[in-house]
Design goal:
Layout lengths: L8 H16 L4 H23 L4 E4 L10 E4 L1 H24 L6 H20 L3 H19 L5 H32 L4 H11 L3 H18 L8 H7 L2 H28 L3 H23 L4 H22 L2 H32 L15 H14 L6 H15 L3 H26 L15 H16 L6 H17 L4 H5 L2
Antiparallel strand pairs: 1-2
Helix pairs in contact: 1-2, 1-4, 2-3, 2-4, 3-4, 3-10, 3-13, 3-17, 3-18, 4-5, 4-10, 5-6, 5-10, 6-8, 6-9, 7-10, 8-10, 9-10, 9-12, 10-12, 10-13, 10-18, 11-12, 11-16, 12-13, 12-15, 12-16, 13-14, 13-15, 13-17, 13-18, 14-16, 14-17, 15-16
Length: 494
């Protein structure tokens, strides 16, 4: 049972693991691997326990809210924690073999755990300033991980990512400062109450614009997406999987949802803004992806497109739309992480990411072939894979609200996504095996294990809609957002 006193462990455990890796594992790869894997496994176990536990809140240091720091565990936080930790654990297993090609093993694990601690902190914090602090911890660790290969392209991409990320952080800090000056509080629930009492003012509109812009940049929503196609392909495959799989969700999509639904409250204007941003991201992302032959850049643009689906579902503001958006958030975390791990396996085996230079690899890499096919069908919304069910719910939610254009747009973008991944399958795995790949072998067992488990989740993900599973994981998260603005009393007495 996850008690209020145990909530800080979700941040403390990965921070402690990062410290121990830096202290004890500098000269030993086995120690670094063991510490990293065990730490992520403990975080996964804590996250699963949180799903089965009642909502709770913890006042850090015994200082009550709104003056003290409040950590909150509700249905949405538990859902996000499970999503992040499942991907992080399987990526860590994959990295045990993949990172043999890199030096500085302990630095990788230290930065990975710092990034995990930052994401978990963003999810459970109850005040805006500490959300900003944890967001910066995760962001700075991710900047370093993008540059981990220390090559020319990696450093250039990391620099661009850091500049854009810092701009987003500046926007967030300004927005938080304006809200604090207006409401006199940083606690999100107390701030929501104060905004209701004081009413809307020009400064609150300015703050909302700044915050939405900053979080949209973190989520890579069009037109704030330009950093992503460079950063994600340049990072090592495990980091690309984490960045596209969970980082942009926890630092961007989740924070937008918390802000819009639980602090400001969803309005028709905000709803329409999210619908437009989601639709634009869907279309721009998939069109740019269709032109790509570098597999990782193709996947990066699809991240932009698929985040658009999530924002579209949330923007509807209805229980069904929120359900579709959150379910697609989980599904995208799974299939996009898998696709980046697949791309890493292909690059490691063949030495190239260019689809035109591949061909016939299903004969030499059967596990990579079928896991890539599973993820490709899921992201394309082909039944019965998991992505089909979340996209279907989003389309149904659009129809329910009479938004026929958005429903049709979602279907069209899904067809274009399928066309893009048929290209991947054709050029990478079908056709004649090139002579220089005749001696290619499947990747090591640890990499195949992570890929296979994620592929099974793509195949079986629709089972999350079974009433028992849905009530356990998805429904509590939907209720938190559907509830709307949450007052301080409701948070403290969860």
């Amino acid at each position: 049972m996850m008690t209020a006193a145990n909530i800080p462990l979700l941040v403390a455990v990965p921070l402690a693991g990062a410290f121990l890796c830096a202290l004890l594992a500098r000269k030993s790869h086995p120690i670094a691997d063991t510490l990293g894997t065990l730490t992520v496994a403990v975080v996964l176990a804590l996250s699963i326990v949180a799903v089965f536990s009642p909502a709770a809140s913890h006042a850090v240091g015994g200082w009550p809210a709104p003056m003290g720091i409040l950590l909150v565990m509700d249905g949405l936080a538990a859902f996000m924690l499970v999503t992040v930790s499942v991907v992080a654990f399987l990526v860590m297993i994959y990295a045990l073999s993949y990172m043999n090609a890199y030096t500085g093993r302990w630095q990788f694990h230290t930065l990975f755990l710092l990034m995990l601690a930052g994401m978990n902190g963003v999810v459970i914090t109850g005040d805006l300033f500490n959300l900003f602090v944890f967001l910066e911890v995760a962001s700075i660790a991710s900047y370093a991980l993008v540059a981990f290969g220390t090559g020319k392209h990696e450093l250039e991409a990391a620099f661009k990512y850091a500049i854009m990320g810092s701009l987003g952080s500046l926007l967030l800090l300004l927005g938080i400062a304006f809200l604090y000056g207006y409401t006199g509080t940083l606690n999100m629930a107390h701030m929501a109450r104060m905004l209701g009492e004081l009413g809307q003012a020009p400064i609150t509109v300015t703050a909302l614009v700044l915050l939405l812009s900053g979080f949209a940049l973190k989520a890579a929503i069009v037109p704030f997406h330009s950093w992503l196609p460079d950063a994600h392909p340049s990072a090592p495959a495990p980091i690309s999987a984490m960045l596209s799989g969970v980082l942009i969700k926890s630092l961007g999509v989740y924070t937008i949802a918390r802000l819009v639904f639980n602090v400001f409250g969803i309005t028709p204007e905000l709803s329409n803004l999210l619908l437009v941003l989601g639709a634009i991201s869907m279309g721009v992302g998939v069109i740019l992806a269709l032109r790509q032959w570098d597999m990782k850049r193709l996947l990066a643009y699809h991240s932009v497109s698929q985040v658009g689906y999530i924002i579209l579902g949330l923007g509807l503001g209805t229980p069904l739309g929120i359900l579709g958006g959150l379910f697609h958030l989980f599904n995208h975390s799974i299939f996009k992480s898998l696709l980046f791990l697949n791309s890493g396996a292909l690059e490691q085996a063949t030495g190239t990411r260019n689809l035109k230079e591949m061909g016939g690899l299903s004969k030499r890499m059967p596990t990579t072939s079928w896991t890539t096919l599973s993820a490709s069908m899921s992201i394309s919304g082909v039944p019965p894979f998991s992505g089909f069910w979340s996209k279907l719910i989003i389309v149904m939610a659009c129809v329910e609200q009479g938004q026929w254009f958005y429903a049709s747009w979602a279907i069209l973008v899904s067809i274009l996504t399928l066309a893009s991944f048929l290209k991947v399958t054709k050029f990478a795995f079908l056709g004649r095996l090139r002579k220089r790949f005749e001696h290619v072998r499947e990747v090591p067992v640890a990499m195949r294990f992570g890929m296979a488990v994620l592929a099974l989740l793509c195949i079986l993900g629709g089972l999350m809609l079974v009433p028992a599973a849905k009530e356990m994981l998805l429904d509590p998260a939907v209720r938190v957002l559907d509830h709307g603005v949450i007052t301080l009393g409701e948070v403290v007495n969860l």
